[in-house]
Amino acid sequence: MKLKLKTVFLLYFMVSLMGLVYALMQLGQRCDCREHDLPKDRTISQLRGELHKLQEQMRKSEPTKASKKTSLPTIYVITPTYARLVQKAELTRLSQTFLHVPQLHWILVEDAPHKTPLVRDFLAASGLTYTHLHMLTPKERKLQEGDPTWLKPRGAEQRNEGLRWLREMAAAAGGKGQTVENAVVYFADDDNTYSLQLFEEMRYTQKVSVWPVGLVGGMKFERPVVENGKVVRFHTGWRPSRPFPIDMAGFAVSLKLVLDNPEARFDGDAQIGFLESSFLQNMVTMEELEPKADMCNKVLVWHTRTEKPKMKREEALIKQGLGSDPNVEV
């Protein structure tokens, strides 16, 4: 029975009102009014009894709510990140979305030779369940200053490191338990925008679930095209002949499928646009994809990028020896 705070307040009010009426009726009365007041006393007693029952039911319902929350399949979110001026701002936005998602475990993987204090302290204060990892991208695979973002696959090593951690965690648990058997893996970049509904759409993924992604590939959206409940092709602006012409933000994978395919990984040397395919093509067929988000008609995630800050004034101050206070963390 779902109890509302309004119901409890109403019962308190009724009990108090009846008590007040009873007290007022006693003022100035010399006669014996016991018989007259017996129905009122019974009513007050009944109301108090009902209030006590409601309070008991509320207390009993709390463990039920907690157990429902923990019985949800865990969503493991793997996010590559790297040091830049907007890093903390974007991690803040993302983490505060994740705080509203029950049973979520954030695996944040830094592109760095070691864990940085900024990310370590940020995660410790985030209020989230998390795992902090690091994996440096080889120099030959890194984008250089001025390179277009699509020139080389990004985040492959960090996503693979997250997958390695998941496989080791599952092996330590014997491949069993609620957090392993029904869990879902999602690859969420730190500069995208996510609807909370997206995480509930993916939560019960059996193999690979898919949905549209907004503002990607030079288009308003890219999406799987669904006919009779099955994905038959992809609406995309580039190379629809790829094995899986899908964006990284547009799919989630069951952890069981990942564990059943220990060699599945992202190929850091994949051709442009083939990074997602390199991971998915040996685990699932197009016919097995599970369309979500109103049969792939609803956009619940968007490719959004924070504009690179222009630091000309800051650079000028540094040249004059008047740079920003080093004690202020941005």
Structural description of this entry:
This protein is of the alpha/beta class. The protein has helices at 5-26, 34-70, 87-98, 117-124, 156-172, 178-181, 196-202, 255-260, 275-280, 293-296, 312-319; strands at residues 75-81, 104-110, 129-134, 184-187, 193-194, 208-210, 213-216, 219-227, 230-235, 251-254, 290-291, 301-302. The strands form 3 sheets. A 7-stranded mixed beta sheet has the order 3-2-1-4-10-6-11, with helices on both faces. Strands 7-8-9 form a 3-stranded antiparallel beta sheet, with no helix packed on it. α1 (5-26) packs antiparallel against α2 (34-70). The longest helix is centred in the first third of the chain and has 37 residues, at 34-70. It is extended and about 90 Å long. The two termini are 48 Å apart.
- Helix percent band: 25-40%
How many helices does DSSP assign? Answer: 11
Shape: extended
Query: If you average the pLDDT, what whole number results?
Result: 86
Structural classification: alpha/beta
Q: Quick one: how many beta strands?
A: 12
Beta-strand residue percentage: 15-25%
Q: How do the helices and strands follow one another from N- to C-terminus?
A: HHEHEHEHHEEHEEEEEHHEHEH
* Cα-atom radius of gyration: 28 Å
Biggest beta sheet attributes: 7 strands, mixed
Poorly predicted ranges:
none
Distance from N terminus to C terminus (CA atoms, Å) equals 48 Å
In spatial order, strands of the major sheet run: 3-2-1-4-10-6-11
Characteristic terms for this protein:
330 residues; 17% strand; 7-stranded mixed β-sheet; 3-stranded antiparallel β-sheet; 11 helices; extended; 12 strands; alpha/beta; 40% helix
